[in-house]
Amino acid sequence: MTGGLQRVASTVLLVVVSFLLTALILWVSGYRVGTVLSGIIQGSITATGAATSTIRWTIPLLLIGLGVVIGFRAGFFNIGGQGQFYVGACSALVVSLGWREGPVPLVIMCGMIAAILAGMAWSLLPGYLRVQFGTDEVLTTLMMSFIGALVLQYLTAGPLRNPSGTGQTAASERIPEAFRITDSSGVSVTALLLVGGVAVLVWLLLERTRFGLTMTLVGRNPTMARWQGIDVRRVGLGTFALSGALSGLAGAVELYGPGARLVTGFSPEVGFTAVVVALVGMLSVWGTVVAAVFFGGLQSAILFLPIVTDLPPPALVLLHGMVAFLVTIKFRAVRRRRTGPAAKPVAG
Amino acid sequence: MTVPSGPASAEVPAVRCRSLGVSFGTVQALHDISLDLAAGRIHALVGQNGAGKTTLAKVLGGLQAPDNGTVCIAGNQIPPGDVRAAKSAGLAMVHQHFSLPPSFTVAEALELAAARPESHSVYRRTELYRRWQNEVAEVGGTNVLATRIRDLPVETRQSLEIVRALASEARILLLDEPTALLTPAATDTLFERLRGLRDDGVTILIVLHKLREVAAVADTVSVLRDGKLVLGPSEISGVSQGQLSDAIVGPAPDADRAIAVEAAANAEQQLLLELVRVSSRESAFEPGLASIDLTVEAREIVGIAGVEGNGQRSLVSVIAGLSAVTEGSVLLGGEEVTRAPPARRRLRGLRLVPFDRNSEGISRSAPLWLNQSALRLIGRRRQFPLISLRQYKRQASEAMDLWRVRYDTVAQPAESLSGGNVQRLVLSRELASGLEVLVAAQPTRGLDFSATNFVRRSLRGLRDAGAGVLLVSSDLDELFELSDRLFVMYGGSIVARFNAPYDRQAVGDAMTGALR
Fold first, then answer.
1. Which pLDDT score, from 0 to 100, does residue A2 have?
2. What pLDDT, in 10s, does the model give residues B323-376?
3. Which of A122, B134, B248, B407 might form a disulfide with A84, Cβ 3.0–4.6 angstroms?
């Protein structure tokens, strides 16, 4: 257990160091660090509606982040959550606009299933390339992500464009108000139950099923798994499908929740932040929940900060980047230690 | 204390260490080791896995700093853990695993390791070849110079490791289990070479596993047990084999009772494994199979002999379902499984001890219990019901206790086990109930004396319980001792079949292709 505590402590330390480094850069650039810090706390917790906004951003980060955790468990790095999120939202939108008169629960259910299937499809193509030809999934999932963003752009600027829209960016028509599971704050009991239920299910899948244990073995040593009679390709495809499904679902929750319509390039970085969320969460389900709340708060603060300081919003993205940078180094170092010469057993 | 310097005189031991102690965490790997190795002789170091042999070699070579104690090489005291100092004092290590860069040609690799590299900053190939042609004359002639390390056969790489060590102008060689990967013939060649070096005045410390090899090559022998020096260095002529093995195993042998193996032998089925004219594609390392006919019946051990790389790996992967059959058919217990996935074969009673236990047999970073439970995870339609981890862990610890795996908790990673314990872990998984046929590939390679005996006893116990065993090994003694029938593979086919009693000469001829 002390090993586990140590890992938690080192991750917390890493986040603190990121804060300090960011503060240093802001200070050197002439901003008042105290104001910025209090702005972050206001924007994520204390200001009116800030806590709600934190939870609103936690939801997509958690769903996509759990997808990343699933991928990692079997040794795959699915960083294309953004695109899977977009195509999921698009599919739910198509279902909802195409079946406006349908019974509400059924339409929502169909929309979510469509989103899950779309996310799966977006992730299964890189997954197939990976298990069949060994194509690096980091590249393919990332490329698929751009295609997903273009699909969204095409739909919102083309077939599903709201002709009466006045905004500067193209947006779709709104879905009927009855389909929404939250108001525009993005938080409701339904949404929280849904996300909490998904987290519990993912935990059960990873830690308490044969499939989860199989994924662990495949992720740690595919050669040994093959000798044990495990169908490594099937496990790989299943992992990619599940991972993409969660990102797709996040897209549907976004549409039925705070969004109500889709705007070209909405929430442009949740899918990528979610990768950092999973890494900071140490690739465990409950760690990812905590990390998602933390990054949800930061996201909320980023939107709030321009109100209290003259800080441009991208300045806080610096903090994101810093955490991502440090957590990646730590992750590589742990991997090196795990496989490197220092890990050799005491042999005689 | 005065530290003598300058060239080693006859009285100064080549290697002298005093009160060496090393611990890793709570494990005391070396305990108060004091040792003098006389110059110009071959010294053998033996002991069980985990006795501290490799650690001692590393400390002497400066790769591991001792917690306390001193090391003197040729009279010069070496600062703890200083590889360069050990090297410049004239000591070179030949590691258990190969250390030459695989993508280099032989000449490039030797130049890299040379004590005095050429002064040019730009190399010319012909000059490199001229410089190193004498050194490689013994390992395959000058045309080997342009070959890349990765393309060389195992025994040539082994010899090159020694050439590399000598290229650094070493006067003291440390060889850590150099015979682990060698065929008997290559081992003899290696020993011949070592004797030649000894006669030239080189001091050699060699870590060995097999007592037969100790008797064949060593002048003196030392035994490590649990990190302590329990015997030697003594003249080999003054120690009997019995004394040696007693010293290795210790006064209280941990009474490895034979494991009562449960084999699910169904009485009516006699023919457990059958290959009918099986061929397969060649792999990067091996010829494919060429029309192999093979049967394994209940209550027998069938041995497969052969120089490594003659299709043994292809044979095992075809039976396991890991590589495709191009022609012919494979039957398990009378059922055709030629195209069946590995999982079906596993469920049908096939069990495997893979060639390389550390990469194919276990997942090093996964916890012990998960490694032990791997076979419970396969099969369709049972993937998603919830399972009880507590039950999995309990069953794993029961099985590991039965097989006497030494561990602290079921949650520790498998890489924390020593070689013999890893093999026990593999056996505890593969030899559980449901077994009908076992394919054991090099099951005792790299294992110490008592672990080897343990594995052999287990295989015999398995046969007596009614199972069939296919034993692939490059250890002829092992094959002769265990096999009821013996096949020899050469170039992907079975070129000879023998029944006990075996004729070593005839088997050896078949292995080298002399029968063709």
1. 58
2. 899 999 999 988 999 999 999 999 888 999 999 888 899 999 999 999 999 988
3. A122
Give the span between the Cα atoms of B332 and B275, in whole angstroms: 9
DSSP H or E run through A125: helix A104-133
Q: Is residue B261 part of a domain?
A: no
Q: Which domain holds residue B477?
A: 269-349+467-516
Q: Which of A230, A339, A346 sits opposite B24 (nearest CB)?
A: A346
Residue B449 lies in a domain: no
Residues 192-231 of B with CB under 8 A from A: 224, 227
Between B10 and A293, whose confidence is greater? A293
User: Is the minimum CB–CB distance between B27 and chain A shorter than 8 Å?
Assistant: yes
Window 176-215 of A, Cβ < 8 Å to B: 204-205, 207-211, 213-214
Same domain membership, residue B175 and residue B30: yes
Distance from CA of A234 to the nearest CA of B (A): 11
φ/ψ region of B62 (left if φ > 0, alpha if ψ in -120 to 50, else beta) reads left
Q: Does domain A53-310 have CATH number 3.40.50?
A: no
Dump strand ranges (E) for B325-451.
325-332, 335-336, 350-353, 437-441
- Residue B410 belongs to some domain of the structure: no
For B283-323, give the DSSP string.
-SSS----SEEEEEETTEEEEEE--TTSSHHHHHHHHHTSS
Q: What is the pLDDT of residues B194-223, one digit of tens each?
A: 898 889 888 999 988 777 788 888 899 998
Residue A206 C-alpha, separation from nearest chain B C-alpha, in angstroms: 10
What integer is the mean pLDDT of A226-247? Answer: 95
Amino acid in position B406: R
* ipTM over cut 0.90: no
Cβ-Cβ contacts under 8 Å, B387 against chain A = 208-210, 213
Identity of the residue in A207, A209, A343 whose CB atom sits nearest the CB atom of B383: A209
Would you state the pLDDT for residue B264? Answer: 47
Q: Could B374 and A216 be called an inter-chain contact, meaning their C-beta atoms sit closer than 8 Å?
A: no
A interface mutation test: which of B20, B97, B228, B377 has the most A CBs within 10 A?
A: B377
- Residue B187 phi/psi, 5-degree rounding, is -60, -45
Residues B164 and B70 reside in one and the same domain = yes
Q: What does DSSP assign to residue A174? A: P
A1 CB within 8 Å of a chain B CB: no
Chain A residues with beta carbon closer than 8 angstroms to that of B24: 346
Interface check for A227 against chain B (CB to CB < 8 A): the answer is yes
Q: Mean pLDDT, to the nearest integer, of B227-245?
A: 82
Lowest mean pLDDT among A22-36, B3-17, B177-191, B255-269: B255-269
What mean pLDDT is reported for chain B? 82
CB B43 within 8 Å of CB B92: no
Residues in chain A: 348
